[in-house]
Amino acid sequence: MAERTKLKKPELLAPAGNLEKLKFAVLYGADAVYIGGQKYGLRSKAGNFSYEDMKEGVAFAHQHGAKVFVAANIIAHNEDFDGMTDYFQTLYQIGIDAVIIADPAVVDICREAAPNLEIHISTQSSITNWQTVQFWADEGIPRVVLAREVSLDEVQKIKQHTDIEIETFIHGAMCMSYSGRCVLSNYMTSRDANRGGCAQSCRWKYDLFEDLDGEENALFEEGDQSFTMSSKDLCMIEHIPELINAGVDSLKIEGRMKSIHYIATVVNSYRRVIDAYCEDPEGFQFKPEWKEEILKAANRPLTTGFYFNNPSEKDQIFGLPPKMAAYDFAGLVLDYDPETQTALIEQRNHFKIGQEVEFIGPKREKFLQQIDEIRDEKGNPLDAARHPMQKVKVKVDLPVQPYDLMRIEKEQEIIKKKHFLT
């Protein structure tokens, strides 16, 4: 019998906008998570982490064999350096596994402040060639995050010419500017996208005009849909084998501001694909259900971005984007009583008697059931769970466990498969 091919399994790296999301990312299959502190990151609107949250997050992640990285990837101005030395020293003392940095001056400050704190070069550095990767390798950097504009062929060439870890994005929002280095937000809202204040101006709705001798001439008819400058979201769920064979060391999911349902669903889906392929590459077959799971949490139509060709108008969103997410996160399982076959559930969206729900979890196959019984914590019958964060007891058909999610299909927003990939 021929010996089975053994592959180096890449790291699955997931976003975590707050402590709760970190725990879900880790439990649903992430090998590492990246978070933002309250300074120097590019997601000022995310929940972000205090030092105390970081300590708890690091302890939880390490207990489950996962790592925690902190994004400190602003393009720094003079005043941004205040307090930076103390910040990196504190991150090292907390036990953060690595920091993600874009600015060379910030790299130097981090090295001086915390020499043993691992540094990864951010996608904000727009790295698109092996010579730049080699530059950072020569500087002693162990990992670079490639620009989103790099093709799969270019990834392969970079790995052939260098001996350094490569991290690439596999899922999530794409920016219409080069590696996210946008200035629209600055001009329209005085919020600097490269210092954490992006207002997502590219996703606003625009009408088109031309200036004719000082007079505006509308280039649209009344009632026409507005335009955006917005890309479809990246999705490489069907192409994980190609990325692994190209030698990618870390597969990165975007979305520190996304929901728990999004993180759990997307991480769990990619975890299954990575494990299945690395377990048996010769016998691997992609399961349609992995793609279907992604669609249940998708925010926008999906694309493979720059990996196989330069994006065209087919990879952009024109007019109002279709509403993609087909499911609502309805409840979080807190506990399960095997004697009564009831789950204690924390309500996250309204659900009621008679509705069909789906349970998913990191260590279980999903299952569907109808809700036949809801009771409050005192055992009184209810016809619905109406109040946010309300704790109720629900009769369940199969055993569940804490951190399992209960979700409900949206009645008016069923996704058509034609929106999945172009």
From TrEMBL:
<keyword id="KW-0378">Hydrolase</keyword>
<dbReference type="InterPro" id="IPR001539">
    <property type="entry name" value="Peptidase_U32"/>
</dbReference>
<protein>
    <submittedName>
        <fullName>U32 family peptidase</fullName>
    </submittedName>
</protein>
<dbReference type="GO" id="GO:0008233">
    <property type="term" value="F:peptidase activity"/>
</dbReference>
<dbReference type="InterPro" id="IPR032525">
    <property type="entry name" value="Peptidase_U32_C"/>
</dbReference>
<comment type="similarity">
    <text>Belongs to the peptidase U32 family.</text>
</comment>
<dbReference type="Pfam" id="PF16325">
    <property type="entry name" value="Peptidase_U32_C"/>
</dbReference>
<keyword id="KW-0645">Protease</keyword>
<feature type="domain" description="Peptidase family U32 C-terminal">
    <location>
        <begin position="327"/>
        <end position="407"/>
    </location>
</feature>
<dbReference type="InterPro" id="IPR051454">
    <property type="entry name" value="RNA/ubiquinone_mod_enzymes"/>
</dbReference>
<dbReference type="GO" id="GO:0006508">
    <property type="term" value="P:proteolysis"/>
</dbReference>
<dbReference type="Pfam" id="PF01136">
    <property type="entry name" value="Peptidase_U32"/>
</dbReference>
